[in-house]
Structures are given as C-alpha cells and as structure tokens.
Amino acid sequence: MSEIDEGPRATGNQAPDVFKVGAWVPMRQFREDEAVDFVIVGTGAGGGTLACRLAEKGFSVVAMDAGAYYRPLEDFASDEEEQSKLYWTDQRLVDGDNPLKMGANNSGKAVGGSTVHYAMVSLRFRPEWFKARSTLGYGVDWPLDWREMWGYYAQAERALTISGPVTYPWGPKRPRYPYRPHELNAVGKVLARGCEAMGYKWSPTPLATVSAPHGESPPCVYRGFCRIGCSTNAKQSALTVWLPRALKAGAEIRDLAMVGRIETDARGLATGVHYHRNGQWRFQRAKNVVVAGYAIETPRLLLASANERFPDGLANSSGAVGRYLMTQSNQGVWGQMDDEVRWNKGPPSLAMTEHWNYEDRKDFFGGYCWMSQGPLPQEWASVQTGSRGLWGEELRREMELYNHQVGVKMVGEMLPVETNRVTLADEVDQYGLRVARVTYSWTDNDKALIAHALDQMEQNLLAGGARKTFRQEDDTNHLNGTARMGDDPRTSVVNADCRSWDIPNLWVCDGSVFPTVGGVNPSLTIQAIALRTADRIETLAKRGEL
Amino acid sequence: MNERYPGYDVLDKRFTQSWNEKTREVVDKRLSVHPGPRFFTAEEWPVVQAICGRILPQPSDRPPVPLPAYVDLKLHEDRQEGYRYAGVPEEREAWRRGIAALQAEASDRHRGSFADLPAAEQDALLHAMQRDELKNPAWGDMPPALFFSKRVIPDITNAYYAHPTAWSEIGFGGPASPRGYVRMDFNKRDPWEAAEAHPGGEEKARRENRRIV
Amino acid sequence: MFGLKRRPPPPTLSSFAVDMAHAMLQARATKALAKAPAAAVETATHVRRTGSNRQDAWLLHGAAALLGGSVFADSGVEHYRGDFQNRAMFLPLIVSACSIAASLHGATTRKHGSHRMRDAAYAAAGLTGIVGTGFHLYNVTKEPGGLSWLNLFYSAPIGAPAALSLSGMMGFMAERVREAPAGTEPQLLGLRTSRVLAALTGLGLFGTVGEAGLLHFRGAFHNPAMLLPVTMPPVAAALMLEAAVSPPRKRHRWSRIWLAVTAILGVGGVGFHAYGVSRAMGGWKNWRQNVVDGPPLPAPPSFAGLALGGLAALRLIERHRR
C-alpha cells in the first residue's frame, strides 16, 4: 500500500498537475490566522464542486481533504490491491440488523473523494422524487424544485462532459449529453437483449468518462479498472474537472489534512476548523465552514464538535444529525454464458434500465435501476465467496469461468428511517478522534423492493441468454442522509441552500443533505446541489445575508 | 497446469503497453513478498498454512502463490478493512483468537493440531466454522462464522486473486494501462488477451497464448 | 498538341493536378518516341486521337484507385478488428485490391480501349459494395436497439461499402471513356456519361459527407476541424449535381475550386486523424489499440478520390458542350 510517502503535495504555492507526470500547477495559499471566506471539509462531489464554483465567484476558499493528492498517470496501478489506497479504511464500527459493509466502494480517502473511484454513472433524479411525500406518498419532500434542479443537472453534465445516449428514454426532456454514448460490451448487450425480451426500455448509461478527447483527457480506452481509479484521466471526476478549475480560480487545496473539530465562538458562529496535517494539529480561521465529508464523516465531525453551547453536536437542535442514514440496495444477479464475454472490458456499467424508477404499478415505495457489471477478480471472488459461500477447489473452478460470467446489479431506493444512523463510538482512531458507529437495518419496504428487483434482474439475465443464475442478496453502496435538508428547522439540519438552521455560517454540502435517496446513483445530484448552493451563496452575499 | 488458458501467463505482458510503471512496481513488490512469518508465531504459522491450503488448494505442478505470506504481511502492516462488526475484534486480534480457537476445536475433536489433521477433517472443521457450529469457549464473543466470512475468506482469497498466477489461471487480461481493449463484443478477443482452449483446440490456444504481447 | 495548350489552365489546385497528369502522359509519349520511332509515331497519333479521353480516363482510374485504396485500408483495419469472423469480410480487401490493380493498369497501359479484366474488376467492386451494404445493414439491425444511434455509431458502418461501389463505378466510367472514339462522349443508358459522372460524384460526396458526419457526431465534433468535412464538401457536391443538370458551361470555375478544396481535405484529413491517434491514451506507442480505435486514417482520402472523379466529369462536360 504505497500511500504517498513524501507527505502533503499541495504546498509551497503549487499543487500536483493531475494531467502530467511529475508536473505542478500554481496554487494560491492562505494564512491560517486570516479568516478565509470558506473553508471546505472534503473535496469530493460536493466539496470539490463547491470549492470550484465559490472560487470562480471570487470568494477565498481553502478546501481540505484527509486523503492524498494523486496524479493518476503515475500513481494509479491496474491493481485492485494497490488501489485500495483510494478507500476510506480508517476504522468504523457497523451494527444493526443489516450492518453496512464500509471501506471499499462506498467512501473515498483521496483528493477528489469518492469520485476518484466512482463508477461514473451520472443519472438525474426522477422529478417526482423531489416531492416524494406529496406525489408518491413516502419519505419526505425536498425543499427543492425539480425544474430548478434540471438546470443545474444540465450544468453538471456539461462540466463533466457526460457521454450519454442521443436521447434519454425516461423522464422529462433534457438537453443532449455533451458526448455520445460508449459502445456496449458483451455483458451490456445481455442486459439490452433481456430488456427487449421483457418489453422494457434500456439505454447506454450516461457516464462521466469521455468517448472522445476532451481538454487534457484522452478518450476512454476501455481498460475496465474505473472503480479503482482511472489511470488515463478519461474519467471526469472532482480530481480532474472541478479541482483544476478551483486551483485556477485561486482556491487552495490542502491534502492529507484531517479535520477533527469545528470551532464556534460565543455568538454561536463557526470560526474555523482544527485539522491534523504533517503530524500536528493546526487551526484554520474561516468566515464560513462547509462540511462535505459524505454521510459518515459529515455527521461524525458535527457530532465530534459538540461544545458547551452545542452539547449535542453542531447544527443538531433538531436531533437529526446522524439520523436518516440511507444507503442504496446494490443486490445483483449473476449468470454464465457459453459465449466468451470478458466482462472486465470497458466501464463496468455500460447499459442500464430505469424501468422501475418510472413505473409505479408496484406494491412498495421507491424505485430502482439496474446496470450491467464487470467486476475485477478480487471483487468477483468476493461475490462467489459471499453469496454462494464457496471456497476450496470449488471456488477455484468457478473462478475459472470468469470470462464467461455476466451480471447486473441494482441501485435501489431505501427509505429514510430515524434509527438508521451514525453515532460516535467510544474507541478512537489514529488521530485520537472517536470513530463512527454506523447502525443500519432494512425496513420491510426495503426488503420488498429488493425481492422485486432480484426477480426482475434474474428474468432480465435469463431473457438475455444467461443460465446458471444466482443472486447476491446482501450488498449496498452509496450513503446519504444524516444531515438532511428541509423546510422545517425542527426536522432538518440544513435548509434548501445547504445552510445549517442553527449556525448561519455553517453549511453542509454532500450526500448527507438528501432527505430521500432515489433509485439512481447520487453523484450527479450531489454535484447539481453544490452548483445551486454556490449560486445561492453568491446571491446571499450580494444581499449581505451571509 | 492451466487447462482453460494453456500457456497463458499475464506476466508475459509486463513490458508491453498493457502495464504502466506503477503497475510493474507494485506487482514486482508483490512477487518478492517477505516469506514470513513476522506477525504470526511459530506455533500459529503451520495452522495458517493449513487454512490457506484448504481455502485455496493449489495445483502441485506450478509454483504456489504464497498465501500465508500475504496474510502475514497484511497483519504485519496492520492494514485495515475500514469497518468492523461490533463484537468482532480488529484484524490482528481476530486472527490470533481465531487460530487459538481452531486449535482448541481440533484438540477437542481429534486431540491434535489443526495443521496435522487430514484434509477432510480440516475441511469439516472449516465448514463447521462457516456454519457457526463451533462452540469452544476460546472463541469468546467472536462468532466463528463472522471470523470465517469476514476475515479468513477475504484475507486469503484477496491475496490469491491479487496474484498474477491467479490472473493467468482465470484468463483475466490483467493490468491494462495505457493500453486497454478494442474488441468488446461476444467471443472477441484482442491479440493481447488470453486465448481460451475450446474442445480439441488446446494446441491452437497454446500457440496464441505464446504470441501474446 | 494535347488540347490543353489551347486552353491555358486557370490558377487552381485542381488544374495543377491535371497539369501533372498531362506532363506525365507527355513525358511517356516523348520517351516512347525516342525509343522506337515507328511505334512512337503510331502511339503519338493514337494519343492525339484519344488524348483528351485518355486524360479523363486517367483521372477516373485515379479516382477508382484512391477510393479502392481507402476501402482496402479501412476495411482491412475494421475487419481485422472484427477478427475476419466471417470469410466474406476478406471480400472487400480482395475486390478493392483488384480495383486498385485494374486502375493502375488502366492508368499506365498504352493500349487504348477498354479491357475485359478491368471491367470485370470494376463490376466486382460495384457489386461487392452493394452486397456489403446489405451485410452491414443486417449487422446493425440484429444488434439490440436495431437501427439506433448507438448501432449506427459502433456496429458495421452502413455507408462504408458504398465507397467500394463508387470505386467500381469510377473505373467503369474510365473504361467507357477510353473506348469512346476520340472527340466523342460515350453514352450511358442514353445519358451523357459526363452528366452521369457529375451526378454520381455529387451523390457520392453527399454520402461520404454523411458518413463523416455520423462519425464526427459520434466524436461530438470535439475539435472544430471536424466540422470541415461536413461543411466544405457539400458545396462541391451541390455544384456537381448542378453541373449534372444545368446547361454546360465553358468553364466550371467554382466547381473546380471546391473540388480542389475537397481533395485537399481528403489528404489533410489523414494528418488530422494521425493527430487524433497521437492524442489517444498511449499515443502512437499504443498504436495497436489507437490505430484501430482512433480516427480511421484511411477514411478521408475517399474525398480526394471523388474529387478526381468530379474533375473528370467537369472536363468532359466542358469539352463536349454542344
């Protein structure tokens, strides 16, 4: 595990140039004792996007990340084991009826956050989900209007140069994706064939990896290691899109900087953050603090910053901080073909269907989509051992069928429940900070949705020509909730602008603010919300309301 | 030794466009792993070797993937998974306790070390662990099934499928950067991918696999 | 003495090409004269008699060869990518090679008149292109999604085999021009060859523009230069169609200019595409992936081939206006 040994890279008025081996770009730096306009904790989909837009609007910004600042071309290997350096593997405790698997996949520890290893699936919410309670009868309403979000989605899609279908088959009209869709691989064609046999629409997946050159990104070479970090920079992520722009606009990025506590003053306002870098605790003063650490680290930081004035943690008068944690169900169905498939070629989710996100004739709440898959050997072995309990000679024999394997996995909506939550455990991590305890249990609705999806996905694979199918019943992925937005300070942590109700200069900008989670991957929505937040901050600043 | 992909060795591509410098560096390091044990004690070591031998038995006609060494290395470096089931101790402690408990079970049932049991008896014990049927007090509050599924299985299978020998065995293309893949459709392979032997076509596949660069 | 002297060439690049062709013919005739006086006299007479026709034929053979060459290399790369999974995938390679060979023979032989083998090669090219289009169409429609953007982008290119047909047709025209008595224009199905050729070039250009447009749309026109082949050649194509139907003029000045532009694009396009390959991950070092996956190097010259055919059409129209 070669972490970056030399310590922080973004120092001395320069930051790594992610597009060139060994190169640097100039970086503005701020003094710690001078209050910057915004200190942002986290540089992923939420923090990275916001840092970029705020800097471009002329605010002084320092964005911190606990992870390292990698140059993909020289630091990323084609190797699952090595690339686990991108995951957040600091200790966490998991419990509840359905303890969440953490670490790999669902959280990142690198500048750029989880977008460095995301699957690049860039989908919009179904409009009704923003008013799930009033239009569909479950969860809660968001304080946002889908029509406004549609504009921000388009903005995010342009910035990320999404490669997607010429026309998207579901939902209201949207502008054409900036780049054309990628070619399907064989496993994508299995999904497509299966959908056609079932009478469902399918689509090439809109992906944040370019199908033609763009800027300094070469077109995707279909190496298939996307989910452990793209070593060619075809992937459009916070690391390669938002942060280079942020640096150009004058933001400072501090890598290997772990924020442990937000300080508040006698007036109850945030004054800055304590952070650990280069072996010591330091303090950065700021006029505003934005927490963008994703749905575990964000509530952990807010709770850990409790003080006399805010004994239950910051921004927590509602008691909602850490509550309503929502993962997404990520069950899958796998099968075999006589044909050679070689599913590891190409991005892992080239074809998808949102059929059950837009079809309401079902006896449970929420929706889901599913996508074709192409796991690498370690991950595939974990499916065989985890779902089928295989080991020994049998495991080795099954693994030899790797190139004949096909599969689909879902991204399913789970309902917000108060008791699914993040709290602080008594044990501490390497920084001396209390570790997060993540408690999760599926609701009956979640189980019904999963059962429905497993049936559907199995039908899909069989109709697509696969045989010997089996189900992976236990996987989950994305994390949301824990600092949800709303219209009512009594039941939510932040308002529609991602501004905390309790502390007006404390903001949360990441997946934590989702009141419901929808049945699609959240990264595009997180980025769209960050774009909106930046615009709102600009407006508020002009009105003198910051 | 490799029936499905005869003659295919992913390491043949080490100096082609399929491998970048970083990949060469990390795989070289992996191939020169410290033989161990550094974390495990001399008493624990044969048990670890026996467990690895049963979880992933390897063919005798090729150099084995040194699985115990990788498990030892992981624990020696104290690499964390990033989460832990409440009630399950962390990695190092889990392995220590798990091995001690397994030895206690072996001693109860067969009056010997786990390492000395015949393969079938070892498998029976491992199956019992997988099914959470072991009750020796040495397990403490650590459920044997969780130790099996969250520690033993991932630590050993991850080590195996991170090894080029395993990649070759399953016909995985292996590292791919800067060169990725061109042919995406069914039954299509790029000239730098493993050729699979179809019935009667073993020699043809072997020839193709010798040409892979 | 070869007719061109009576008409000083206008200062365009297309006429430069004609000059070159002319000079080569002249040089060959002179050489022949020096070598064998008796035969040379005969040849010279023959050249005088059929000279203009020969130059037209020479241009058409050139057009056929360029189009054939483009198909040869392009289908070679693309069908290699497809592992030649179907034996028929060798066919365009063989047939385009025949078309090239016939064209080289036609352009260099001193014998006037048509030749049965060349005619056969050109006919094969014409037919193979049509059959290939059918194959490609089938290939597209059998994929999930059928006739969708995705399959138009990534399945067998529907427009590509037509270039082989065009190569065959250009060669066929060359043969008809060659066998026509000096000073006369051959007729095709009761139509003047020049007009048919002009129309064919115009339609061929439009088709090629469509193909380039589709693939450049697939590339999201990420480089502004990708707009060139969908904006410039259509002008030439329209002018050729106009020339096919309107009363003949003494000189199709603008048509010639636009044909020249189209030809330059065809040659320059290779350079642009080579740059595209260098921009892909691994650049030229990773040529085994990028030459196949990147912008197709052999595709643009088909524009140049069609431009040559168009030039021949214009020359015929201009000379045989009555």
TrEMBL record, chain A:
Keyword Oxidoreductase: yes
Annotated coiled-coil segments of the chain: none
Domain Glucose-methanol-choline oxidoreductase C-terminal: 416-530
Source superkingdom: Bacteria
Molecular function terms, GO-annotated: flavin adenine dinucleotide binding; oxidoreductase activity, acting on CH-OH group of donors
Family annotation (InterPro entries): FAD/NAD-bd_sf (IPR036188), GMC_OxRdtase_N (IPR000172), GMC_OxRtase_C (IPR007867)
Keywords (A to Z) from UniProt: FAD, Flavoprotein, Oxidoreductase
Residues of the signal peptide: none
Domain Glucose-methanol-choline oxidoreductase N-terminal per the UniProt entry, residue ranges: 106-306
PANTHER family for this protein: LONG-CHAIN-ALCOHOL OXIDASE
Family: Belongs to the GMC oxidoreductase family.
Protein name, per record: Choline dehydrogenase
Species, as recorded: Faunimonas pinastri
UniProtKB/TrEMBL annotation, chain B:
Source organism, top-level taxon: Bacteria
Organism per entry: Faunimonas pinastri
Classification via InterPro entries: Gluconate_2DH_su3
UniProt name for this protein: Gluconate 2-dehydrogenase subunit 3
Pfam family, one: Gluconate_2-dh3
Region (Disordered), start-end ranges: 192-213
Automatic annotation (TrEMBL), chain C:
Organism superkingdom: Bacteria
Keyword Transmembrane (UniProt): yes
Transmembrane domains' residue ranges: 58-77, 89-108, 120-140, 152-174, 195-214, 226-245, 257-277, 297-317
Keyword annotations of the record: Membrane, Transmembrane, Transmembrane helix
Keyword set includes Membrane: yes
Protein name: Uncharacterized protein
